[in-house]
């Protein structure tokens, strides 16, 4: 697999990106358009033409502000707009529209709008901190994936109580509803201003700026900023400061350590409440915590960061995933290959990875005066297997799969449990096919991918088709053909997808599939990538029907991404309560007293003989204690056995989270569990 799937998680994203629809009424001519007095006074300046999202174009006098147009439009958009977007430039509503172009208004329902919302909230945070700690100096305060932060240099170490005080001050600033006012200064004036305010980091930023500095005021607070911002602080009504962490100035550990306060803010109260609930739920499901509690895996500093130890229970789940994966691959025409963990450096020269992937590769090691490289990818090995003999058009398509473990360098700061690691096993495969087989291969791959993801309980998907970037290898004609094949495949399978224009890898177009977990977070797992580059670099050929040599098309694909990350996503998706077919222990037998041990042992043997994974808890603990522990371990079935059960040859069934479901005969319990295992329920 060429791309960066596997180790690089796609963090959870915001939803509801859709822009608000514009008010039905278009700008009326009674507004700013060519007013007779305006033209009549000889003030005629060249008007600008603004094109609205519905395609309507109107002329406006030069000097018009976004807010003036908005006032004219009225309606919901006028109430909810927080910035204007003119072509690709986002501007404060209070700014003069500098030229003609396509104009739309952003609300907090769009990702760009939300970024402005969050970034403006960072100003409110800084304003509050400055009031409480006048000696504080500020570094950067950007929006992040969910919320915002500001890096602050202040002699005190912020405590949770300090965050509450800062929140209270922020509430005052919000209530004061200060407008954000932009001012453009020359460099000297800006330097003087921030020197006077003793803002050392801002002085450094001004020095680096490649453009004239702009500042924004909200009430008494001044910040160096390019903008844009909300019209006023009053919009930041629902916010919360989440945490504080250390962060080096400019990310360099030789620089001073600053304090980074993280926060979130939303336009609606319900959004903030929902967010806080989700955070709470996500914390409970955090795979790092469950990994420890359920004894699934660990990371050990003596081994090294980003390197995973799979414990027996996690190992068992992985075994079940791999077993299913292998069966399905065999049934879908794949063959398995195995390849080494290191290879001569020259191989990576040929493949081009030394050129475009070097930053993610470890240093080579010397063996017999030759340099060897630990592998960051499996692809070159599969290419070499292809080259090991003459291939005929009759041999194609070839589908080679490998659970290949690769190692990639990631900065230690970005490592995160199972989600971002330094060593991981990709469920990798490469297809080699003739051009006339490409459509069928894509169809097959899409069907196979969806089947695999659904089997693990993921049916809510987001699909992206990425097209040709500016710098790319391969002929335009090939790109078009491959992109068409991907698009046709998606359409044939009636899958909804979005196009990411120009976001393909330089070697070919691709389809990425993100899965949505039970908390609505998306994770990128599957990718299908056409590659025109590697077959060229390795000079792959097959003998065609015409007896001549032809170049095969290569497809890289991963369905689960990496086993490590997929496992992490699964742990959080299921909150550790895996479906029966994956649960390391499916049934635990719980005798109430020692007198039932023999009967309980018999039941356990019957379960094992039926192919189920059963355990017996024969410790001399109270049964309530044993049940609680089995619940914590998220064992799907508990069979409780007391005197009554033993006498009647029955069991009392209790299911994880569902509670007691009464007495049952053991053959009925066994067949119920077997049915669920078969259907992967
Ligand atoms: Zn590959
Ligand atoms: Zn700003």
Write the layout of secondary structure elements.
Elements: H1 36-40, E1 48-51, E2 57-60, H2 66-73, H3 75-80, E3 83-86, E4 89-91, E5 101-106, H4 111-132, E6 137-138, E7 143-144, E8 147-153, H5 160-176, E9 180-184, H6 187-196, H7 200-208, E10 214-218, E11 221-224, E12 238-248, E13 257-266, H8 269-285, H9 287-293, E14 297-299, E15 308-310, H10 312-331, E16 335-336, E17 342-344, H11 345-351, H12 353-356, E18 365-367, E19 370-374, H13 379-387, E20 391-392, E21 398-407, E22 423-433, H14 438-455, E23 461-466, H15 476-492, E24 498-500, E25 510-516, E26 522-531, H16 534-537, E27 542-543, E28 549-550, E29 553-562, H17 563-573, E30 587-591, H18 597-609, E31 614-616, H19 623-632, E32 637-641, H20 643-648, E33 651-655, E34 659-664, H21 666-678
The structure holds zinc ion (2 copies).
One zinc ion binds next to helix 4.
Describe it for me?
Helix content is 34%, strand content 25%. It has 21 helices and 34 strands. The strands form 8 sheets. An 8-stranded mixed β-sheet has the order 16-21-22-29-26-25-23-24. One zinc ion binds at residues 1-2, 377, 379, 430, 556.
**Strand arrangement, major sheet:** 16-21-22-29-26-25-23-24
CATH class category of the largest domain: Alpha Beta
How many helical stretches? 21
Oligomer: single chain
* Bound ligands: zinc ion
CATH topology of the largest domain: BirA Bifunctional Protein, domain 2
Tell me the helix content. 25-40%
Specify the CATH homologous superfamily of the largest domain. Bira Bifunctional Protein, Domain 2
Overall shape: it is globular
Number of strands: 34
- Major sheet details: 8 strands, mixed
Instruction: State the low-pLDDT regions, or none.
Output: 2-43
Number of spatially distinct domains: 4
Strand content: 25-35%
- CATH architecture annotation of the largest domain: 2-Layer Sandwich
Structural class: alpha+beta
Distance between the termini: 31 Å
């Amino acid at each position: 697999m060429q791309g960066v799937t596997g180790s690089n998680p796609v963090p959870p994203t915001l939803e509801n990106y859709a822009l608000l629809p514009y008010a039905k009424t278009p700008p009326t001519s009674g507004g700013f358009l060519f007013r007779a007095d305006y033209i009549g006074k000889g003030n005629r300046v060249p008007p600008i033409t603004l094109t609205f999202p519905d395609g309507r174009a109107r002329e406006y006098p030069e000097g018009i502000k976004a807010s003036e147009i908005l006032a004219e439009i009225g309606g919901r958009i006028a109430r909810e707009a927080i910035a204007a977007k003119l072509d690709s430039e986002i501007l404060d509503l209070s700014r003069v529209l500098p030229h003609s172009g396509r104009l739309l208004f952003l609300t907090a329902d769009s990702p760009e709008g939300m970024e402005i919302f969050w970034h403006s909230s960072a100003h409110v945070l800084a304003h509050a901190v400055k009031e409480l700690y006048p000696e504080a100096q500020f570094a950067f305060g950007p929006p992040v994936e969910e919320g915002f932060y500001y890096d602050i240099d202040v002699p005190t170490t912020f405590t949770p109580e300090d965050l509450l005080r800062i929140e209270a001050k922020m509430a005052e600033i919000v209530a004061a509803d200060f407008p954000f006012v932009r001012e453009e200064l020359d460099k000297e004036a800006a330097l003087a201003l921030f020197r006077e305010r003793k803002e050392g980091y801002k002085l450094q930023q001004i020095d680096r700026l490649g453009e004239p500095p702009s500042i924004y005021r909200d009430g008494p607070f001044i910040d160096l900023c390019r903008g844009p911002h909300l019209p006023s602080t009053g919009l930041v009504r629902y916010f919360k400061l989440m945490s504080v962490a250390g962060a080096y100035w400019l990310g360099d550990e030789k620089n001073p350590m600053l304090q980074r306060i993280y926060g979130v803010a939303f336009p609606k109260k319900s959004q903030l409440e929902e967010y806080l609930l989700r955070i709470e739920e996500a914390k409970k499901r955090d795979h790092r915590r469950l990994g420890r509690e359920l004894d699934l895996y660990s990371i050990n500093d003596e081994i090294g960061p980003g390197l995973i130890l799979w414990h027996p229970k996690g190992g068992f789940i992985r075994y079940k995933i791999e077993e299913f994966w292998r069966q399905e691959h065999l049934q879908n025409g794949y063959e398995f290959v195995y390849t080494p963990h290191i290879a001569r450096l020259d191989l990576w020269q040929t493949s081009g990875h030394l050129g475009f992937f070097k930053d993610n590769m470890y240093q080579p090691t010397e063996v017999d005066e030759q340099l060897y490289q630990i592998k960051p990818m499996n692809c070159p090995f599969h290419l070499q297997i292809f080259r090991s003999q003459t291939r005929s058009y009759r041999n194609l398509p070839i589908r080679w799969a490998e659970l290949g473990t690769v190692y990639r360098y990631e900065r230690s700061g970005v490592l995160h449990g199972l989600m971002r690691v330094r060593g991981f096993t990709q469920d990798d495969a490469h297809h080699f096919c003739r051009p006339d087989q490409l459509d069928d291969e894509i169809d097959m791959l899409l069907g196979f991918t969806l089947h695999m993801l659904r089997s693990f309980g993921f049916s809510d998907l987001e699909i992206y088709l990425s097209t040709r970037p500016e710098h790319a290898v391969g002929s335009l004609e090939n790109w078009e053909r491959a992109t068409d094949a991907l698009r046709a495949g998606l359409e044939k399978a009636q899958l909804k997808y979005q196009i990411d224009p120009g976001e393909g890898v330089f070697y070919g177009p691709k389809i990425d599939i993100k899965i949505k977990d039970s908390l609505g977070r998306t994770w990128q797992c599957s990718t299908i990538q056409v590659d025109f580059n590697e077959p060229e670099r390795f000079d792959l050929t097959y003998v065609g029907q015409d007896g001549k040599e032809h170049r095969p098309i290569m497809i890289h694909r991963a369905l689960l991404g990496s086993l490590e990350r997929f496992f992490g996503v699964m742990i959080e998706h299921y909150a550790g309560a895996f479906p029966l077919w994956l649960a390391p222990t499916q049934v635990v037998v719980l005798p109430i007293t020692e007198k039932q041990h023999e009967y309980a042992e018999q039941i356990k043997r019957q379960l094992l003989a039926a192919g189920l994974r059963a355990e017996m808890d024969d410790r001399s603990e109270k049964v309530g204690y044993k049940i609680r522990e089995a619940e914590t371990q998220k064992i799907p079935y508990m069979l409780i056995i007391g005197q009554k059960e033993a006498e009647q040859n029955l069991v009392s069934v209790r299911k994880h989270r569902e509670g007691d479901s009464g007495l049952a005969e053991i053959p009925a319990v066994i067949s119920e569990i077997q049915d669920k295992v078969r259907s992967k329920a």
